[in-house]
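Exam review. A common question shows you a sequence with its structure tokens and asks you to describe the fold in words. Practice with the pair below. Do the first one on your own.
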Amino acid sequence: MRYILTERFGFANDCVLILTDEERDPCRQPTKANIRMAMHWLVQGCSSGDSLVFQFSGAGAQVPDCDDDEINQAIVRPLVHGVKLHAIVDACHSATVLDLPYQCTFSKQYGCLRWMDERPLNGACKGTSGGQAVLISGSSNGKTQMSVLPEPNATIGALTHSFLKAVECEPRTTYGSLLTSMRTTMRAGAGNCNLQGPVGCSIRRVANFSGVEEPQMSSACKFDINREPFCM
């Protein structure tokens, strides 16, 4: 992800903050406190023209919703006009992680991508302060069992792999084409990593440790996914 952000999209190295289990520095390990700190660091002082990226890859769990919108409040609400956030979350039960009001999925009935209105019935605001937020996550039928755990520095999650593969193969694409390409890669199944160059040189295996079956997208507002160019 660092390589894609810095080499493909022009992010500066010192603008990328990474938390991993392998870090010896306790401030760079993905504890709840550190993740919370990093989310606030990401949006702090954001202004029109800024492009923000949040990525998480790991195991997820489903818990009862007691109106806890901490992540939405941390990195969605602060987005002012002209700021855009992309979140790529490779974890099971990830579709609602940002509590965004609109969800785009592959419709079996219509055979294409369609938006669904996920705004809460109580009228609670789940949007931004004028900016845009887009979440790329995965859907599951709930029956997939997580059978392969990630190995340090060797395994990449299937959703992350499909995202990087799509960006690598089609640098200039639309959101609709991105999701379609990711869907094709994920349906091909896990196995050896087929990413080229520096992106894939240190990765030996693709594992669907998140249990997701298809990519999906959520957004703070609806847009034409087949015409809107994807760019971070």
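Now try the second one, then compare your answer with the model answer below.
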Amino acid sequence: MKYSEEISNKLNELLIKNYDAEKGYLNAIENVDSDKLKMYFKRRASERSEFAKELRTEILQYGEIPEDSGSFKGTMHRNWTSLKATFSSNNEEMVLEEAINGEEASLEEYNELLKERNMPPSIDSLLLKHKTAIQSAINTEKVHEELVS
């Protein structure tokens, strides 16, 4: 496998995760009543959409084809979250818990990729920027969770 294809494959994996995260946040909006949480989730979805655009651009710069949708696993998780929210006594807490779990999984993916030493500095910088924003989202979601529990 050539170098550009290897990098693009790894970035495509992150791209799919970002599509899933964006859709997850849009789904979360439908499962909470608080206008503040709705706005927060909308901002997170927009941020993940921007991450996806940035990753797509990087993949295209390497002459490869970016993925154009999320994963089946992500779709199943969103359906499960919606079902759980339907039967939960505290939708907002449950939705925030799921958001935290999803972001922590994303953070792990970014950390794994950042451990690799074969990435160009521009990609390392982009991944570090995304990772920092994801960590910030986790911290904020934990505060929101404390407030609604």
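Model answer, second protein: The chain has one domain: 3-148. The chain has a mean pLDDT of 85. Full marks require stating both points clearly.
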